[in-house]
Amino acid sequence: MAGKSIRRSLGWASGISVLIAAAVLLWSPMAEAQGTFSPAPRVQATQPAKIDRSSPGSKKGILTKAKGGTVWIDGASYALAPDAQIENQLGSPVELRLYQWNSVELPVQYWLGTGSADRQITHMIITLLQ
Q1: Is residue 84 within a helix (H) or strand (E), and if so which, with residue range?
Q2: CA 11 from centre of chain
Q3: CA angle, residues 68, 73, 74, in degrees to nearest 5
Q4: Count of domains for the chain
Q5: H or E element in which residue 23 lies
Q6: How far, in Å, CA of 127 to CA of 85, rounded?
Q7: Domain check: are 63 and 118 in the same one?
Q8: Which residues partner with 93 through β-bridges?
Q9: Is residue 45 part of a domain?
Q10: pTM of the model
Q11: Strand partners, 108
Q12: Which range marks the domain in which residue 90 is found?
């Protein structure tokens, strides 16, 4: 009877040893270096793409008013596309939807969407006064 008890204890001990060894291997730095373990994806901050100023189809004008998602250039109103990219003359992003400008005169270069979005500005460069 004592022999059965010892064999059973040894069986459990070997099973537990195998599980512990597997856990150690999975959590070891070598396993992580080999790519078998990934704690969490690393998110890298990406720089927003710069506007290609040489893209064809740009227009130039004078921005006189901005309110929410609408701008007025040379007396005509344009909506900003939902993903419109807007920069200042130095290439830094400008969140134009946050501003309310009235009676300003700022030179702009802008690109309009095509098709049904032909009255939406997709890209715009604003020359801010210094």
Answers
A1: strand 76-88
A2: 54
A3: 150
A4: 2
A5: helix 2-27
A6: 14
A7: yes
A8: 87
A9: no
A10: 0.59
A11: 61, 126
A12: 59-126
Number of neighbours of residue 125 by Cβ within 10 angstroms = 22
- In this structure, the answer to whether residues 79 and 122 fall within a common structural domain is yes
Q: What is the bridge-based pairing of β-strands 76-88 and 120-126? A: parallel
Phi, psi (degrees; rounded to nearest 5) at 57: 90, 10
Round to whole Å and give the CA distance between 101 and 87.
Answer: 16
Q: Identify whether 87 is part of a domain.
A: yes
Q: Are residues 63 and 120 in the same domain?
A: yes
- The dihedral through the CA atoms of 55, 122, 99, 87 has a sign that is negative
The CATH number that applies at residue 113 is 2.40.50
pLDDT, one tens digit per residue, over 1-11 is: 555 554 555 45
Residue 53 belongs to some domain of the structure: no
Q: What is the pLDDT of residues 43-62, one digit of tens each?
A: 555 556 788 777 888 999 99
Count of other CB atoms within 10 angstroms of residue 33: 9
DSSP string, 25-73: HHHSHHHHHTTS--SSPPPPP-PPPPP-TT-TT-EEEEEEEEETTEEEE
pLDDT tens digits for range 102-116 = 989 999 999 998 877
Q: Which residues pair with 16 in a beta bridge?
A: none
Residue with tokens 């099973």: 15
